[in-house]
Write a structure and sequence with these properties.
alpha/beta, 13 helices, 49% helix, single chain, eight-stranded parallel barrel, TIM Barrel, 10% strand, Chorismate Mutase Domain, subunit A, binds manganese (II) ion, binds phosphoenolpyruvate, elongated
């Protein structure tokens, strides 16, 4: 958990940081309206997109510097901090000139190390806080690298925003979350606060609560939720924005879990169950080792008989039967299928080594 006076942490494990505000700053009235309502909800940071990265031209691309002037007026009027997206050094400079101290790097920018480096260079020596959204593709190193570039520029308050990843596959999500990637990021960079953006992950109002709850269950540090005074009229991302009233309902329904518990009975029970998990894992590893020994014997046998390693019919049979066994045991079929893909690829690797080993080589 981040230190106490970090902008991206409430310094309290039990309360997530909430950042809310419209996808785009559309007019001074819209911003004033939303900012006043968010201040009443004690939301510490208002987000607003000033330059919008739209896929196709001639869509609303943000109000630009005009919006920065509105933000400057409103933030001094309401004593409210604003966060904006920056994609170029010019955006950073314009933001700083208008008193903005919190920036985020969007998913289409964090994908490009040149662009991130230029932004980082523009932030050198600046007292600012920066959030780095995950790149649009599920590439953990790229995300981590973007965070490191910002850190190297001397920015102390850096957070990561998980907004999901583009996918060609049919999905109920606008950007499927691939939760294991932010979890891995958190284990690599435990001091970087992790913020979930359920709006861009889900792409629809009805999904905000469930995604937010899941993030809190995974011990995220905060949420960034797109909030608009009149979501249906929003000039960008209308389907996923909620009203401040809906935001307050989501907030009041979220269950906040403790990171740890001091309860003796709970700790004892946990230790007990973890011992059982250790035992089960040992059995899994031993079973895999036994399986690999058989795989190697088959490899030798195929070699002696000059038969190919990959046998399509056999692989199809494995891919069909194992998920069926899983289903009968109430396991997720897809999970077991994915597991077998990994096991099968390791088996092929091992048999390839055997096949390529010269007979003169020691085994
Ligand atoms: C946004 O926050 O409005 C935005 C454009 O997000 P992303 O970079 O995640 O697509
Ligand atoms: Mn948006």
């Amino acid at each position: 958990m981040a230190e106490k006076d970090h902008k991206f942490s409430n310094g309290n494990n039990t309360v997530p940081l909430i950042i809310a505000g419209p996808c785009s700053a559309e007019s001074e009235e819209q911003l004033r309206d939303i900012c006043a309502q968010l201040r009443d909800l004690d939301i510490p940071i208002t987000r607003a997109g000033v330059w919008k990265p739209r896929s196709r031209p001639r869509n609303f691309e943000g109000a630009g510097v005009e919006a920065l002037k509105w933000i400057k007026n409103i933030s001094s009027e309401f004593h409210q901090q604003f966060a904006i997206e920056v994609a170029t050094p010019e955006h950073v400079e314009a933001g700083l000139k208008h008193g903005i101290e919190i920036f985020w790097i969007g998913a289409r920018t964090s994908v490009n190390p040149f662009a991130v480096q230029e932004i980082a260079d523009a932030l050198k020596g600046v007292e600012a806080s920066v959030m780095v959204k995950n790149p649009i593709n599920p590439d953990l190193s790229l995300w981590r690298g973007a965070i490191e570039r910002v850190q190297q520029a001397g920015i102390k308050e850096v957070a990561a925003i998980h907004r999901g990843f583009s996918s060609f596959q049919e999905s109920k999500f606008r950007n499927p979350p691939a939760w294991q990637i932010p979890i891995e990021l958190k284990s690599m960079m435990p001091d970087i606060p992790l913020i979930c953006d359920p709006s861009h992950i889900g792409g629809s109002r009805s999904m905000i609560y469930d995604i937010s709850q899941k993030a809190l269950d995974l011990n995220y540090d905060g949420l960034m939720i797109e909030t608009h005074p009149r979501p249906d009229e929003a000039l960008s991302d209308a389907e996923q924005q909620i009203t401040p009233l809906q935001l307050s309902e989501v907030m009041s329904q979220l269950k906040i879990r403790d990171e740890k518990s001091d309860n003796e009975a709970f700790l004892n029970q946990l230790e007990d169950l973890r011992e059982k998990i250790d035992q089960a894992d040992r059995e899994i590893v031993e079973a895999i080792a036994a399986r690999m020994r058989i795989v190697d014997r088959i490899g030798e046998y195929k070699k002696e008989n000059n038969v190919t390693i990959f046998q399509l019919e056999r692989w199809k049979e494995i891919l069909e039967t194992r998920p069926q066994w899983a289903k009968a045991l109430l396991l997720n079929e897809n999970f077991i299928q994915e597991l077998y893909k990994i096991i099968h690829s390791e088996s092929i690797k091992s048999q390839t080594d055997i096949m390529n080993r010269s007979t003169a080589d020691p085994k």
